[in-house]
Amino acid sequence: MSDPHQAAHVAEQAETRWVWVVGIVVATLLFMMAYMSLHWITMPPQRMETINPGTLHLAGEFVEANLGSATEADGSVTVRLVGNQYSFTPQCVLVPENTPIVIRATSADVVHGFSVTNTNINVNLIPGYVSTFHARFKETGEHTMPCHEFCGVGHAAMWAHVKVVDKETYARLAQQKRRLSCAERS
Length: 186
Ligand code: CUA
Prior knowledge:
Layout (H helix, E strand, L loop, with lengths): L3 H38 L26 E4 L5 E8 L2 E3 L2 E5 L4 E7 L4 E4 L6 E4 L5 E5 L5 E6 L12 E7 L1 H10 L10
Parallel strand pairs: 2-5, 4-10
Antiparallel strand pairs: 1-2, 2-3, 5-8, 6-7, 9-10
The structure holds dinuclear copper ion (CUA).
């Protein structure tokens, strides 16, 4: 038969251990909060780029001829796209695998959602603002790109594709055209 005093002692030890575990978890969370607050406070305020949604199609970065994927001097790829009721332009985004991608997007009318399935790409397209997202696709393949923000009666039909191709294919296509997209599924 075990001594009741000894049992109480064992229980107390276990409780003390758990108090320490919980204490460490709470302390870690508090440290993270304090660290992130201080870290963010030392950085410039959130970058905010504005753009006139009424003249997107007339001049500037988001004219139709400038939409799609463009290869930059450093080898990265910039994808520019516009969301409007009820489609994205381009309807299919072509990108190379394993390459730093910068997505720059905006809306021509109302708030749209921009997300790419099986990735962490998820941002809102807000008229008047440029949304930027950095991404990298590790594997070739196709993703769907649905609008995830209710934007009107055609919302459910508003979606597009992302097609990830290998670097060689992309490079070959990029030689033929400065702005790439895959307007039709192949
Ligand atoms: Cu665009 Cu929902």
